[in-house]
Structure formats: C-alpha cells, structure tokens
C-alpha cells in the first residue's frame, strides 16, 4: 500500500464536498420537481430527452445510451410512463426487435409545463450561487472529466 496516492487535505475537502453537494443538490432539485410538477427525475429525464430529439422520438436503445440507463430499466420505466399517457412505444419498421419511444401531446405538454419551475430550482439551488467565472470553470472541469470517462 506504499504506492497508494492518498488524497491530501485540499483534495479530500474537494472530493467529499463535491459528493455531499451532489447528493444534497440532487435531493433538493428532485423534491422541488416532484412538488412543482408531480414528475420524478427519471420522468423528467425521459421527457426532456425526447423533447430535444428530432420528431420527439428516439430509438429505445439510443435513448437508454444517452441517459446512461440499461435498456431493461428504461423499458420498464417507459411502460409506466405509457400507462400515464406521456409516451408511446412504436415498432421500428426496419428492425423487428427495435422500438421507438415517442412523446405524446400530453407528454409534451407535461414537460413544457414542468420545465420553467425545474429551471428555476436549478438556478436557485446552484447556478445563481456561482459567479460567471465559476460557471465557466465548472464547465471546463466537467468537460475534461466527461471526455476522460467517455474515452476510457
């Protein structure tokens, strides 16, 4: 264990602070989202991803990959959202085993209604607490870490 590169006090403070902040921030924003719109974070993630997709539709496998979910997890969640009328599944004409997930009018209306309060929550609990320079630095940091994680 002599070759372990232990975190120094400054690194430990940054790491533990990040983990605690992420946990508390996720909980607060999820609570606000549920209180404001009745949506869970997974609901919002599905709806917002489909809302940004061309034609408000995406292949199930592509959507799962974009959301970093397993196909099985997404499929089960889509089934629950389908029962609420937010999305529908359609067969893929060129792949008998594939399926598209499509945002319904109700789903589009739900995300349009939920988005303003959700963005306000993100601003109130995170963005507005940072300076412009800190936001730029955070963007640079996340881009570097994401590039490392997606290329390794």
TrEMBL record:
Alphabetical list of PROSITE patterns matching this protein: HTH_MARR_2
Pfam families: MarR_2 (PF12802)
Lineage of producing organism: Bacteria, Bacillati, Actinomycetota, Actinomycetes, Streptosporangiales
InterPro entries linked to this entry: HTH_MarR-typ (IPR000835), MarR/SlyA-like (IPR039422), WH-like_DNA-bd_sf (IPR036388), WH_DNA-bd_sf (IPR036390)
Domain of life where this protein originates: Bacteria
Protein name (Swiss-Prot/TrEMBL): MarR family transcriptional regulator
Domain HTH marR-type: 1-147
